[in-house]
Structure formats: C-alpha cells, structure tokens
Write a structure and sequence with these properties.
This protein is α/β, with parallel strands linked by helices. 25% of the residues lie in helices and 23% in strands. It contains 11 helices and 18 strands. Helix 10 (327-334) packs across helix 11. It is elongated and about 75 Å long.
C-alpha cells in the first residue's frame, strides 16, 4: 500500500473536550462535527465525544446517520433547513434547527401536525453572514414563541472577532440589548470565545477547531492552550538522492540548490489534500527531525530537505502535520488555516484510528 495515512487519536479528542469543560464549567457543550468532523470522521468523532451534551453539524443526511447509529443526545443543524421537505425528517429525528431567515420561519408552517422542534434563533450581531438583524429578530422571536411547531427556543449568535484584538465587546453589547429580559437559553461562544471570553459562555458553547487540537489564535499555540492534535498525517520517503549545486527541484525548477544537497521524496501531494501552494520551507518531520519542503508540491509527491538527517532512507517516516508538528504551523507557512488542512484530506488517504494504548510518537507512522 502507498504509505500515506491519517492517524486519528480519539483519546486526544476526549482530552480536548475536557479542556472545553474546564474553560466553561457551567455551560453545556455542542461538539461541532460539521464537514465530516473536520475531516476526522463523523461516526468516529461522535463516539469520542459521547460526553458532550450534543453535536452540531450542517447536513441533515449526516444527522440522520448519527441517529441511525444510536446517537440519542441533542443534534443541532447549524444552518437550519434548506427546504421544507426536510421538516418531517427533522421532526422524526428530534433535531434542533437553527432559524436564521424569514424563509426558514415560513417553512415551519409546513411542519407535520403534532410535530414539535427545538429551535435556535440566530441573531446577526455583526458577523453579517447569517441571522436576523436585532430589530427583525424581535418579531421572529415572538413568532417562534407562539408557533405550534416550536418546542424549546434558544437564542444564538456567532462572533466574527473572538480570535483577534477586536474581541467580542461590540457584538455582546448588541446581543445583550436584544436579549435583555428574555428568559431563554443562549448559545454564543465558539472555540476562541470559550478560551478567552468567559462572559460569552452562557447556556451552550459550540467548540469546533479546538476539539481537533488546533488553535483559533494567531498568537497562541494549541500546546499553550493545553490542546492535543487529533489527526497526524504521516507518510514515508519513497526516494532519496544527492543533488549538486545548481540542480533544480520539481515542476518549474522553483527551488535551486545553492550547495550540494541530499533530498528525499515523500508520498504525499495535493491530491492527498496537502496544500499545493505551500512554499519551499514549509515545516515537515522526517524520522522525527524537523526539516523543510523544497520546490513545488506535486499531485502525489513532495520533496524534503535531508540536510542533517544522516539516517534518512527509503521508508523513513514523515509527519506532514499532527503529533510533533502542529497543523497550525503548516497552515501558517502555506498561507491558510488549519481548518482547511484538516477538512481537505482526500478520500484516497486511509484513515486509521489508533489504539489508545499506543499514541503516535513524533516521526512514527
């Protein structure tokens, strides 16, 4: 078999949920498992997050699979329903649905007789993506409170700047003004807000990226936050060669050796989900030793610098990100975010859940 694989450490996922609990001890937790649990596998993540109070995702088909697998806790559809035909399914499986626009509000009128769905009313407090403006949200709230098909109503919003210096103060002021005097549950905090703004924790928090062991912040590492990587993308060297001064590497000869250089080729490329735009110098581990990529990433391969790694040979293990090398750091080098790296791992990459007694060591495949 081609040596690339994604190793999943479910114990790390449980550990990261524990970090959420310690940060927000008085809140219930919706573990966000959208995008196939950020590339980690929906069913696998649901098992590891069994101690969460609920799960949140987008696709109703995935939510149905969770119910059919035996998951009985709360499941929230973060973008609500896309068509009224989904209402009977949502009611049958007891999904909590987000309502963020007037059309979704009207969809509820088509709910089957006797159906009762828990609803989260999304208020746009400054993200300007989804949600009712506060003035319109008041009317929507009143309509939902009186609607025959609505059970429990929760107020929610989403923060645009919880991960940077602008923070949450302005959005919190808008939300608090809207919600004043209302005895309704609230859900506000994403990963960044959970970690930095305890005033946002409210009744339900919605951790996403932190569950998977990455940081939402540019100035604080996942390790500093006490988070553990859940996915380790590993491969091996499939070729080793010595290059002379002036030799160029890869398509377009984008990297030129300025001195004699020993290089290796790892079985990983953009068809596996590694970012094609990652430049020379992107960090990588070879045999547990930190080094760098050289030249352009190919569809199935990338080249690494073996300077100072005397024992490197064909079949030496390579860590692209994960244990020993945070996906955050690779993402920064590639000009993207760790969310994209985790979600982009291709279907052709085998995913292996580690036995919890044998967590991956840096550089081990």
């Amino acid at each position: 078999m081609r040596p690339i694989k994604a190793l999943i450490n479910s114990a790390a996922l449980r550990h990261n949920l524990g970090v959420v609990r310690r940060c927000a001890p008085h809140s219930r937790v919706f573990g966000v498992v959208k995008a196939n649990a950020y590339g980690h596998g929906l069913a696998r993540a649901a098992r590891a997050l069994e101690a969460a109070d609920g799960l949140a995702l987008l696709e109703i088909e995935a939510a149905v699979r969770l119910r059919e697998s035996g998951y009985s806790r709360r499941i929230a559809l973060l973008e609500g329903l896309f068509d009224s035909s989904e209402l009977p399914v949502a009611a049958q499986h007891d999904f909590t649905i987000v309502v963020h626009n007037a059309e979704q509000l009207r969809m509820l009128d088509a709910a089957p007789a006797g159906a009762r769905l828990d609803v989260m009313l999304k208020v746009n407090t400054g993200m300007n993506r989804l949600g009712f403006a506060p003035a319109a949200a008041l009317a929507a709230r009143d309509s939902l409170l009186l609607h025959r098909a609505v059970g429990q109503l929760t107020l929610m919003t989403h923060f645009a700047n919880a991960d940077d210096a602008r923070g949450v103060a302005l959005q919190m002021e808008i939300f608090d003004t809207f919600a004043a005097g209302q005895r309704l549950e609230r859900s506000l905090a994403n990963s960044a807000a959970i970690l930095r703004f305890p005033q946002t924790h409210a009744d339900w928090v919605r951790p996403g990226i932190m569950l998977y062991g990455c940081t939402p912040f540019a100035d604080t590492s996942a390790a500093e936050l006490g988070l553990m990587p859940v996915m380790t993308l590993v491969s091996e060297l499939i070729s080793v060669q010595d290059l002379q001064t002036g030799a160029r590497i890869g398509y377009g000869g984008a990297f030129e050796a300025t001195q004699p250089l020993r290089v290796g080729v790892a079985a990983c490329g953009y068809a596996d989900g590694y970012p094609r735009h990652a430049p020379s110098g992107t960090p990588v581990l070879v045999g547990g030793i930190r080094t760098r990529t050289l030249g352009r990433v190919s569809m199935d391969m990338l080249t690494v610098d073996l300077t100072g790694i005397s024992g490197a040979r064909v079949a030496t293990p390579v860590v692209l990100w994960g244990e020993g090398l945070s996906a955050d750091e690779v993402a920064i080098a590639a000009g993207t975010v760790s969310y994209e790296l985790l979600c982009a791992v291709a279907p052709r990459v085998p995913v292996i859940e580690l036995r919890e007694s044998t967590p991956p060591a840096p550089g081990a495949a």
